[in-house]
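Pipeline run #58 for the internal structure catalog. This entry was flagged by the ingest filter as a single-chain record with no existing model, so it goes straight to prediction. Upstream metadata was stripped on purpose; only the residue string is passed forward. Reviewer on rotation: M.T. Logging verbosity set to normal.
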Amino acid sequence: MKETVARFCRRGFALSLTVALVSVALVGRAVAGRPFISATDAGVLDPGYVEIEAGTSLSRNTRGEANESSWNLPSVVFNIGLTDNFEIDIGTGFDLVREKIERSRRRRLGSVAETSVTAKTRFFEGEGAVPSFTVEMTLLLPTQRRELLSAPSRKVGFTGVLVTTAEAGPLTYHLNLGGGVLESPKRSLGTVGSLLWAIAGELPLTHELAAVAEFRGESVRGSLPDNTALGGLAWKSPWGIKFDAAGFGGLSRGSDNWGITFGLAYSFKAIPWLGK
């Protein structure tokens, strides 16, 4: 197991290093995303730009009868600007879970993470205290192994979220509210609705360094509410790369006890015939 974890750690580090080196030459304008767990902003990438968010995370869950550690090595999101007010986001990753079953027995599982495909449309662009509004429509593809899925089968899920971003003095805040259609972990309930919400903020400490915070939640019929609080830092390096590090803790019985995450983001012009 130690060799397996070390191998995944080396691969995750190699990916992060590659992203960092490439971004020195290709970096453009990045929008907010990491290190938030689920909150997004109302910004849309310029046409022809691609933003890559890469990161790793570790979480621990001992609530109820659970006793497991989860690694995400790494998670990657590709954001692609197509028009002035529209972008496509594709996210996936690799999950490694170590679960204690009975006494000292442990089960180790590795799998591609759930894959999401999001269409993001901005229908009003504000400035300063005047908020911007964006709608995100997401398909959730169950690409994980069955043992890691919360539901008994592998059905596609769907969510829709309204995103608002505005400024209050030096603070930039993001409000997310929406819901979707997912399969309940309880087989007898079948497909059920879900409620999604998030409140996040970014407060500059210096010209390059900002404190970030997030409160988010998800409620799905047939499962315990998953509410989490996150706090951390984001640093804009001299090369334009945005690095981040954060810790988070569960606020409800359906959440992990604690976790940490770190990563980076950069964007570059990839489709020259789009935009100006």
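catalog note: The two ends are 51 Å apart (CA to CA).
catalog note: The CA atoms of residues 2 and 93 lie 20 Å apart.
status: ready for reviewer M.T.
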